[in-house]
Amino acid sequence: MDLKEKQSLNKKTIISEALPGFHQMATWRRDFHRHPELAWTEFRTATRIVETLRQLGWRVRFGPEVTDDCARMGLPPTEVVDKEWKRALTWGADPAILEQMRGCFTGVVGEWDTGRPGPLVAMRFEMDALEVSEATDNAHRPHREEFSSVNAGVMHACGHDGHLATGLGVASALPTLQPYLAGRVRLIFQPAEEGARGAASMVAADILDDVNYLLGIHLGCNTHSIGQLVCGNKNFLASDKIDVLFQGVGAHAGLNPEQGRNALLAAATAAIHLHAIPRHGEGVSRINVGVLTAGRSRNTIPDFASMQIETRGINNRVNEFMKERVMQIINGASQMYGVKSSTTTTGKGCEAASDEPLAKIVLEVAQEIPLFNEPLLFCDFSDSEDFTEMMRRVQELGGMATHMSLGTNLAAGHHLPTFDFDEVVLPLGVELLVTLIWRLLAKNPEVMSGPQKNRLQR
Fold first, then answer.
1. Are residues 219 and 270 in the same domain?
2. What is the pLDDT of residues 166-216, one digit of tens each?
3. Pair (368, 414) in one structural domain
């Protein structure tokens, strides 16, 4: 065995001994799964993360310090926030930590410094759940093994509970590796990923401005079995999430319908014509009206209607085309029926692609881990992701970013009531990320190249 092989074996042994056990990983995941919280109200989730990071010796920042107030989108109504705040207390959230999150400032950032100069590696993990009612039959493993959601109508149906457990697994392993590394690690626990609402506010808080390498990871996207890995997703779609309110005039439908101004018909007309927007010749362009509600009773001309819309485009230009057509149609439908309309952008994502040099490093690292038997360098994501806002900021400042898809067996597709994943993937994900950090922060400066060397002392 030559020196290089001995060093590699020694590295694997050191990393292996630092990794948390499967039981701990599953315990974290199941705790988060049992207590899901929606965007901007991840109060109990965020306090648990703060507590755990502190116990592991990390420096922790949270609240307004890591989330810009003016850049937040799609905040819930005050009455909903108050209800979720009280629920978090009943679930055991630390009141002192919770107090600093008032006003829906649920972002958390963990900082770890080796004490030696080197690059800064950042990783993003999402915290929010979905408005999905979890399955309640014994065929669904979380229900059968008694860790299904105790929050009616809310569920971790996208794997974010697994992402959180992975982030804490990385946090648990790194302090042991301090003697072997040079640089810093930043773990970003982001609120409001669903609907593309939260990343921009953390970008605006400047927590990405000194990052050399940014890593994101998602369970089961375009990878559906243990051993699969996409090292760099590309072709993320730009997207806007738009809420529309039509305000009409109510009237009795039998006695004096002529006095009414029908908001429901305006919304229905808009919905039909929105789906008739021509596809763009430059590439993927999509529109969806996901929610339409209107009216108060069967015998009243509806005086209000609301819609939730999203546009998507292969790039920012195509998405902007879709958004402009949306506004024209909404205005036209409003004029047809003599009603007023207003729109609010509640979420936004930009086009993005992973950096090939960083994706290649991920591929090399994955090839060192036996369980990865099908790593791919690139894959078209063909969907939107809030992470792109963070990617763009790091890339604009000369750093590199990649978004990975980690394969796991799924019980059902994302956002469905029976969604579940094989928890064996959790320690594998931690091993991948920790080994990647070793590669990027190793004392050997040869792991750095090009413009990255010039940004180490920023």
1. no
2. 999 999 999 999 999 999 999 999 999 999 999 999 999 999 999 999 999
3. yes
